[in-house]
Write a structure and sequence with these properties.
The complex is a heterodimer.
Chain A: H1 3-12, H2 27-49, H3 51-54, H4 65-77, H5 80-90, H6 97-122, H7 130-134, H8 141-168, H9 171-179, H10 181-201, H11 219-245, H12 252-287, H13 296-322, H14 325-349, H15 365-388
Chain B: H1 8-37
The chains are: A mainly alpha, B mainly alpha.
Chain lengths: 401, 47
């Protein structure tokens, strides 16, 4: 065996070895350890003291940043899974080949940790299965969200398992799952269409509590369309981060095709964002909400629409036209921030907008700490998976599917 | 824009009219935007 093959073989057959001496070998590892310790402390506090001990939630704000960030942002930013798999498997855009596994991996981790984080809000984890198997509330939008997320996490787990089985060398079960790829992709798109929009539909129940600029009967459409460009932007954004932190784990194919993925998704995100801008405009016109634009809330709304939708849309367009991948990556970063801003606006800023400032919600430090803990867990899990499994590289024993 | 509407019919006529005009402009705008976006792409037509 040549030296080159030997190295390749080692990369694809790494065994899990925990070396305690290296756990605190870098500042990044130490920071991760501190955040994980803080998360464990908050976990103990949450499940011994209840919501009142670790959050600033009250009757006016039963949902805080654990819903706004961990759930709403978590779900929308994990939309890269269905965006990429549908582009590659259903629309036949073969240049996205190298983006599929990283996107599916991050989507799977994103959804899995949405469910994980939901335990902190809901409490009593052993009852999480009740709405699905014991007492389904089939007339509730929240039930539909729960059912879709439950099914979609399962679909993503199966889609992602191909990489795990390649790493484990379980060829026969991998072959079975590869044959299920198209049905799983179709199911993933259907489930995503349903629950991405239903998360917006949850807010249709509170027209009197939400600011008119953010409340609209079209809010499910806004949520779904924004999930499309959020997913594509997240794939570009994650790709840029992976090139910084996980460059050594990438093979030639991934490094060579990275710019094709960026240009392709940049162009798609640009046109979708322009469409989103127009339907937001139609929402304003249908409800005759123009008068609210001349207020503080109106100014913030305009910042969201012009600064975080129209501006990155133009940046994407210019980047795709001129083949400037750096500009597209910057636009992706702004878009990801913009989607987070939008979900916070809908669920917190515009919610209870008529309450006096003293009664407004601001998260407890432990709420923020838990969100940081969850993000750290996702990043750590992603790094571990990419280190061991063929996510950012192809396994030489298997053909791309 | 802050008109007084005396009936739901008035409101719907005003808002829907404006929305339909914006939709027309939106379709034309998106078409122009698509032409701008793909203006420098290679021509891949084989016919």
């Amino acid at each position: 065996m040549s030296a080159e093959n030997k190295t390749a073989d080692n990369i694809h057959n790494r065994k899990i070895v925990i070396n305690p001496g290296r756990l605190f070998s870098s500042p990044g590892n130490v920071l991760t350890a501190v955040i994980l310790a803080m998360g464990l402390f908050i976990t103990v506090m949450r499940f011994t003291k209840g919501l009142g001990g670790v959050t600033n939630l009250d009757d006016n704000y039963p949902w805080g940043i654990w819903i706004s960030f961990d759930l709403l942002c978590g779900v929308v930013l994990a939309a890269g899974g269905y965006a990429t798999t549908s582009a590659y498997y259903l629309f036949g855009l073969k240049s996205f080949n190298t983006a599929v596994r990283p996107a599916v991996t991050s989507a799977f981790l994103g959804y899995a940790f949405v469910v994980f984080a939901l335990h902190y809000d809901v409490g009593q984890p052993w009852r999480l299965v009740y709405p699905i198997f014991y007492s389904p509330g089939a007339t509730s939008v929240l039930y539909e969200v729960g059912l879709c997320v439950f099914l979609y996490v399962s679909v993503l787990a199966v889609e992602w398992s191909v990489a795990a089985f390649e790493w484990l060398g379980w060829k026969s079960i991998r072959a079975v799952i590869v044959r299920l790829t198209i049905p799983l992709t179709v199911l993933g798109v259907i489930l995503s269409t349903m629950h991405q929009s239903s998360l917006g539909a949850l807010y249709l129940i509170a027209p009197s509590k939400m600011h008119p600029l953010w409340y609209s009967s079209f809010i499910p459409v806004f949520f779904f369309i924004s999930s499309m460009f959020a997913g594509m932007s997240m794939v570009i954004f994650e790709g840029a981060l992976a090139h910084k932190g996980l460059h050594a784990e990438m093979d030639e194919h991934h490094l060579r095709d990275a710019d094709k993925v960026v240009l392709g998704f940049g162009k798609a995100a640009s046109i979708v964002m322009m469409g989103y801008f127009f339907i937001k405009l139609f929402g304003l016109a249908m409800d005759n909400n123009w008068k609210y634009l001349a207020s503080g809330y109106g100014l913030w709304y305009l910042v969201e629409i012009f600064g975080f939708v129209l501006l990155p849309s133009f940046m994407y367009a210019i980047g795709a036209r001129e083949k400037k991948t750096g500009l597209i990556r910057l636009a992706a970063c702004i878009t990801v921030i913009g989607v987070v801003v939008n979900r916070f606006n809908v669920s917190l800023v515009a919610f209870n907008w008529q309450l006096p400032p003293a009664e407004k919600y601001f998260p407890h430090w432990m709420e923020i700490g838990l969100s940081i803990f969850v993000v750290t867990l996702i990043v750590t899990a992603y790094r571990v998976i990419c280190y061991y499994m063929p996510v950012l590289r192809e396994h030489p024993d298997y053909e791309a599917h | 824009m802050d008109n007084v509407f005396y009936s739901l019919h008035d409101f719907m006529v005003c808002t829907k009219s404006l929305t339909y005009i914006l939709m027309g402009l939106g379709v034309l705008g998106l078409l122009g935007y698509w032409i701008f976006l793909t203006g420098r792409d290679d021509n891949i037509r084989k016919f």
